[in-house]
Amino acid sequence: MDSKDKRGQGRPLPALPRAGPAGLVLHQDEAVIILDKPAGLPVHAGPRGSASVEDWLPALAFGKRRTPQPAHRLDQDTAGCLVLGRTKPALAALGGLFAAGRARKTYWAVVRGGPAGESGEIDAPLLKRSTARDGWWMAVDPAGQAARTAWRVMGRGPGIAWLELAPRTGRTHQIRVHCTHLGCPILGDARYGGGVGALHLLARAIALPLEPPVAATAPVPGHMREALEACGWRG
């Protein structure tokens, strides 16, 4: 398909493998596709019609009359596992799993500094805030929605650490805010104190208790490899 945005904005889609969107498919069956979403690509087009995963959906139909649809969301700058439903019943079932917290999600992040301990769970409710000058963001606030994230240190490097995180709830920006709350913002997360650059956050794996069960693991994106290697990762 054309690599240019169909809505007239002229923004190119992120570079694809030679196989096109199909080259990013981690899992495919009659009901579910799991896509390795590139960092920098939003799931849905914004009000200005920017390039998004939606541009790839027709190519991901693979001959079916119905195009697949995202069953959840990932932040624009987060790479990794994105689940698509290929049928209405599949989308309904997936929506129920995500709403009930039954989809087991695993994230990898490289953070600035690092936690004092080696593992734990963050229990910190999140509330959306906004100002005319700064736009919106999420903040830890007792009046917010319950949010819990389990974490463990996978490795440490000079001034950074590699964390594996398992969100127990699915709040907007949950992992990003919780890492900052832990005292170690995600590298490249300018909104929450991680400095400028590419966001070092990967939706590494997902497991869905369907019948039969479905699971997938996303590869480490290029922009995270150096920092992970400094923390002891050996790809």
Automatic annotation (TrEMBL):
It comes from the Bacteria. Keywords: Isomerase. It holds the Pfam family PseudoU_synth_2. The keyword Isomerase applies. Residues 10-21 have a biased composition (Low complexity). Residues 1-21 are annotated as: Disordered. InterPro entries: PsdUridine_synth_cat_dom_sf, PsdUridine_synth_RluA-like_CS, PsdUridine_synth_RsuA/RluA, RluA_PseudoU_synthase. Residues 32-181 form the Pseudouridine synthase RsuA/RluA-like domain. Belongs to the pseudouridine synthase RluA family. PANTHER family: MITOCHONDRIAL RNA PSEUDOURIDINE SYNTHASE, RIBOSOMAL LARGE SUBUNIT PSEUDOURIDINE SYNTHASE D. This is RNA pseudouridine synthase. The lineage of its organism: Bacteria, Pseudomonadati, Pseudomonadota, Alphaproteobacteria, Acetobacterales.
